[in-house]
Structures are given as structure tokens and as C-alpha cells.
Amino acid sequence: MTGRGGDSGRRRQALGRGRRAEALAALFLACKGYRIVKRSYRTRAGEIDIVAERGKTLAMVEVKYRPRKALAAWSITPAQRRRIELCARGFIAAHPRYASHHIRFDAVLMAPWRRPTHLRDAWRS
Question: What is the pTM of this model?
Fold first, then answer.
């Protein structure tokens, strides 16, 4: 298929893969003892794939699915990190009960037929 129809089909497939990866990442984190507070939290600044709580830590989790985990790790750009950080500020402002929590930025890297990799404190704001 050529033209716009093919592009939208690929985009739909990528969105579907992303949603499945996020659902699997949420299950993976829950099995590790995290409570999933919110999925796909959106603000004008951007989106946080998963907000997860464990004790007094609130993890803002970016989920990346790529053919290889190394590609997934490299796909989190500095601009994307800044958008997630801005979005995290919006989340805390909207949910002040988490203001005393330690905020951490994590990543869950995923690749086909591989166990997810959870990078705690993947970057700092």
C-alpha cells in the first residue's frame, strides 16, 4: 500500500504494539511490588506511560518497545525526558497527596521475546 493509507495502518499497528507493551510493563511492575497509580497520564506538556508507587517512591515510567533493547534505551531523547519531567510536575500538582514522595524517572525496555528490563532511576531531572 502506498500513500497515506499505508502510513496510517503502520501508525495504528505501532500504537497497538505500544499499548500492549505498556500493559505488559504495568503487569511486570505490579509483580515487582509496585502499585500502578495511573497509565497514560497526559498533560499539554506530554505523557507519562505509567505512574507507579512503591513505598514512598513514585516512579514516572517510560515504556519503550523496539526490536532490540539497546535501541529502546537510546530512543528516550533528552527532549522526551524534559517533557516527562514537566508532565510529572503536573501530576504532582494535580495529586498533592504524592508531594512528599521521592520522585524517580524509570524506564521499562522491551523487545520481542525478551523479558522486560526495568531501569530504576534511568535519569534525573
Answer: 0.86
